[in-house]
## 1
Amino acid sequence: MSRKITYTPIGIIRSPFVKPQGTPIQPAYAAGVSGTVEVFEKYRAGLKDLDGFSHIVLLYHFHRSRGFNLRVIPFMDTRPRGLFATRAPKRPNPIGLSVVRLDGIENRILHVRNVDILDGTPLLDIKPYVPEFDGDADVRTGWLEKARKSVRRRKADTRFG
Amino acid sequence: MSRKITYTPIGIIRSPFVKPQGTPIQPAYAAGVSGTVEVFEKYRAGLKDLDGFSHIVLLYHFHRSRGFNLRVIPFMDTRPRGLFATRAPKRPNPIGLSVVRLDGIENRILHVRNVDILDGTPLLDIKPYVPEFDGDADVRTGWLEKARKSVRRRKADTRFG
């Protein structure tokens, strides 16, 4: 189980944050900050239908992260905590996860808001944000909307019927 | 930007799902299904404080996934969609993301519920689920609770003050 897993960036994230020091810790603290996600040409066809979603999940590589400690004092705390109970970027596998608002897509450029990500960060994956999967918020879910409602009905039927 | 990124599993996910065919597509459809996450001994110290969270984010490698198409017909639909507008496991970088309920931790074994993950899946990362970052739900957030309240107050002050 120590077999290595290799990924290749599918794009690059652009933001106003060029130094780790000034970068917000989480999207909630980067409210309104705009950025772009440049998806490489070869993956462009995969962006179809994404514009129906108000929010998307970005997975990326913390490229400035080096090493890790299993105990860290988080930004919002004064005591050392277990690394996996924090969102610290220095992790055994430094994968970042941000839910951002999608303002629009032009060609292969995504315009996003609430970006807490360093400029130049390699993008690994984009997923649609779906409240039933990832939590709940003021979101739209594009083509999934209808299927979600039918799932909700089915669940309600099971629970109350 | 086509530089390769290498990760190493930090654990392994155990579930009742041994074949891709029977595995639910998302945790919402795996409601109540129990599984375990075995974190390797060398990372155990990083689990401290995680038990304060009701939900956690699991990032893992879709180890049974081979290749990908940029257009796919999703489980919940009948029309081809852009891959990145779906949660299909066959992706350029096949990273899976699930928000699961954490029932408890014994030593380095996490007992989780709502597991939509194949048995034997390599674990890449664990993050605490935090509604302000990842959405909203019926969650607890352990040691972060106090800091979150203060953040909410500060945001309310800015908005209404």
Note: Chain A touches chain B through 72 residues (CB under 8 Å).
## 2
Amino acid sequence: MKTKQDRDEYIIVIGCGRLGSHLARLLSKARKSVVVIDKDEHAFHRLSDEYSGFTIEADAVEIDTLLRAKIDKADVVVTTTNDDNTNLMIAQIAKTIYKVPKVIARLFEPSRQPVYEELGIDTLCPTILSAEALRNTIIGEETGDLE
Amino acid sequence: MKTKQDRDEYIIVIGCGRLGSHLARLLSKARKSVVVIDKDEHAFHRLSDEYSGFTIEADAVEIDTLLRAKIDKADVVVTTTNDDNTNLMIAQIAKTIYKVPKVIARLFEPSRQPVYEELGIDTLCPTILSAEALRNTIIGEETGDLE
């Protein structure tokens, strides 16, 4: 039996905006199996030549789209659209219906984080991450853990 | 003579959106002297009670506003508005005219980064930071430095 390290992890990225496309590229460079879903075909132009994964032009809010992306086989689903509700809805489907082991949702409104936590969905809030990085740059690492 | 560590660092944050307000709060909690500038008075509602710094309701693109904020005394200026051009313009004024030691600009379009570098302006790109954090979460730290 293969260990987790040996297994070819399969990752679905929802949304091919700045964040989704950049993430897809990084994962692709790390030789992961990646599928990016976006309902706007023009969004895929953001993917550079370095991206060697698949793309699906469809609305990821539709179950059919998620099935086409083989969500039942996914190890990780990351929702990166610009809308918290869309991200939460798809993350919830991935977690609750398809039992995807790791689900991460981009989150604009940090105050909603507890809802996600209760559903077993990890969150990434670019605002908090960026503010903390800036604070550490300004204050310096020796006092960066003051919070 | 005081060392850099002893000195009360004076920081100007331009823009009181999600990022600016969160950063201001973190710096304020770390007992730094902070001024936040935004042209929209409603933006200051984002600052929580934990924020003990000053606010200036004015357009930071105007030199008068920057002078009111005592930019000539600032140790750090961070531009966090939603517009790359506004951030670059103010960062450039801070760096070139007022010789602010540390200037950091939020950057939406990573491809423009070299321009900032040439001007001695540090940049923070939330998209890149977030994509890298997601990659490290997904791939794990042992392979997180693959890029």
Note: Confidence is low (pLDDT under 50) at residues 142-147 of chain A.
## 3
Amino acid sequence: MNETEPADPTAPAAKKRSGYRRLPVQQRREQLISVALALFASRPPEEVSLDDVAEASGASRPLVYRYFAGGKQQLYEAALRSAAEELTERFRLSVQGTPTEQLGAVLDGYFSFVAEHDAGYGALLRGGSVVETKRTTAIVDEVRRTALRRTLRYMGVREAGPRLTLLVRSWISVVEAAALSWLDEGRQIPPAELRDWLVDEFVAMTATAAGHDPQTAEVLAGLLALEGPGGRAALLLARLGALPADR
Amino acid sequence: MNETEPADPTAPAAKKRSGYRRLPVQQRREQLISVALALFASRPPEEVSLDDVAEASGASRPLVYRYFAGGKQQLYEAALRSAAEELTERFRLSVQGTPTEQLGAVLDGYFSFVAEHDAGYGALLRGGSVVETKRTTAIVDEVRRTALRRTLRYMGVREAGPRLTLLVRSWISVVEAAALSWLDEGRQIPPAELRDWLVDEFVAMTATAAGHDPQTAEVLAGLLALEGPGGRAALLLARLGALPADR
């Protein structure tokens, strides 16, 4: 990856004067992808052309076309892969804090990713984009699978039965729905509130599923032990229990 | 719609003998769509050709091509539209029973739809199919919007704020995730258990959201009043409240 790109014979002299620089291949590739990701944040992917990327990056068109000979589709897939890696990185849990604090920290990372990628995130999860293919769907599915694995590991589970898998997949879909809803409604709800809401929903959904599945009940008991009797999870469940009498 | 299709000049005599019949145009169209839907239930839509539909329906190929001059894509969209209408019909609530009983009845209708359409349902919600376009995504989104409207009406809500909208959209995504997970895991969980689980998750998620939003709190109070103190919702919440002390 230390290869440096060849001089661009087609780059106009003006471009050269205005700052066109030879970059190592990998660095140039990353630059073009990050420019593309920035463009996808404000426009649906099908409306971003290689020419737009060339213009926004200050690289010549032939250069951009050489890096992405497969056209827009190849650029989109490369950008998606890069975004998927970045998102997966943010799933890493901070080691400190109670389980609900750790989950909150992961969600903070997730929502900063959503805020940054905005339209690109929406287009991706909503599907039906002209640049969506089996390959792009596979990338998104891989992110979901990683989220599933990480969440199960966070819950201390080695081998999840169908009911626990269902619970975690369901909660992940709630996180996605919340992110889409948040973008659609013009970010009316502060991200910190959304994070707390999702942590609470995680606890409530797990507690509810515990009534249907012994494995989930065991996992819940472990989390409640880590949270402690005055922790967020215990307080939430106590509040839910008091609701019928409250009326 | 009383128009009868013209005699099919290309239909082989053998086919005619074996039961090829002239049908009114609308009836033939519906027959072909229902044959296509049955094929989509066991194979991804991109693997179903107009020839397959001709063979399975006993109609001649030219006849099928005349009905769907836009090819496979047109057939798929017509089938999707028909399935979407059928699903939307199943959202209609039975008038009797407590709110949780009514919700359970709607979910029964939903899962019978999922079971019937199987692979077709999965392909649709998972996206990335070669036959997926902006138009097909719009059809799916319309079903989701109808589900959102109906659920809000069921909750007695006229105008939902962003937090209540978020809650209902989230729960709908849980239903979808549950259906996909159910199909993926070879239908291990009995549909009646899945229905009860989803009803309980609805109650728990709403009760949790009530702590973050006055409108949701009001809706929950109304539902709990209809359920009564010994109803499913109240018993579930009491059980959740007892969990921290149970350990």
Note: Residues 11-18 of chain B have pLDDT under 50 and may be disordered.
